[in-house]
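Trying the structure run again after the queue cleared.
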Amino acid sequence: MLDTDLQSSLSILVVDDMKFSCVYVKKVLTLEGFKDIRIANTVSDALAAIAERPCDVLLADWVMPEMDGLQLTAKVRELDQANHHYTGIILLTAKEGVGPLYQAFDGGVDDYLTKPPNNKEMAARTYATGRLSRQHNALLARLQHQQQQLEGVCTIDPTTQLDNERGFTRRVDALLQRTEARGGVVGVCLVKLQGADAIREKHGDSTFDEVLHSVARRMRRSVRPDDPVARIGLDEFVLAIPFDDEAEAASRSLQKLERMLNVKPVKSRSGFINLHIQLGYCHAHWREGQVSTPQLLSCCRQRLGQVHEKVEAFVPQPLADQLA
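Done. Tokens:
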């Protein structure tokens, strides 16, 4: 027995350049108990309908003038991937033989019906495809939820093995609390890679990962072993350094920034990659009271590009003045 509640709730989209065929398929499925049925007579209309509201089952003609069923399948799979959704796809065609069958399944189609289809068979296959689509989407939703939970507790950037923003915030908040209790200064330096997207587009993800690893190593070497260093975005790195007083923060922090400004090219599988970076620096003094890591990062972002090679001319200011 079919689950009538599931059957009536399945969202179905019928695509055929022949209006009569769309109307016929919709009538057959309606008589068999399906309720939510939309039709589209062009591929453009079909893609717009899916973008507006994803469907559980797509029944499409193989041969259409604008784009054939396999090309439509590829487009729908792209939408599915972007929307974390899975659409069950059935192709209807007058093509016969094993060859087209293999071609359809190889192209990502879930099921295949030869025209003219038997009404009962079409209804049964539509139901079965919709049921699998619902199960698939339930699994996708569960995986996405679990991934969000993992991201909520994960403190490590998987590419560089540095802290991520969550891990960095946790460690720097502890430094700030200790500084507030015992005195001292916490300096934070934000390093932004310029042209990161261009590097990825020109050289590929593997080479870009090599660049990230190189920047991570250089930053780690420029500070003490226990100082927090993190990657907090596609093209953003950050480090934090505790000091005893402002004078030390002003001198030692900015010496490290000066070394970071003189970045040598990265040797990669694609050759030498020249790096261009922007730096932003802020610090929190114990006399300023409670200061949060997000405040310091916001200050650093506001000051990106204001730290230049003549860093000895930089004069530390209270965080309130730095944010002004």
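The CA atoms of residues 174 and 248 lie 20 Å apart. Worth checking whether this holds up in the mutant runs.
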